[in-house]
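U., I forgot to send this yesterday:
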Amino acid sequence: MRRFHAVLLAVSLAVSAEAVAQGPSELRITCDRGPFGTRTYGGTAWDLYGCSDNRSVAIVTASGNPGMPFYFLFAERSGQYQLSGEGTGRPEFTRRAYDDLRRLSQQDIQALVKETQKATRPGR
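Result:
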């Protein structure tokens, strides 16, 4: 089940990242490294995943999160992180998480990205 979730995540984020990209020169990213720990946003559990560009981080509903299925992506563009999200989870839970995530500073987001870069890939 966990592997299926990671594969689905990689496909979903690749498609979503293309939609976020504004030009043909921007690379498609996948966010299938992880999870690298669980954080609480909006009172619910979210897993951290590292992305192929080594500058972005995906925050995905953890097992048991009533907001599932949903993910947020912090993607770095022009030196600033932009937050996007996608899924069909219950909005009362995803909105609370969004409210917490949008309050993170650029330094907070960089620390999350760094965490996914330093840790060894889980299960290896």
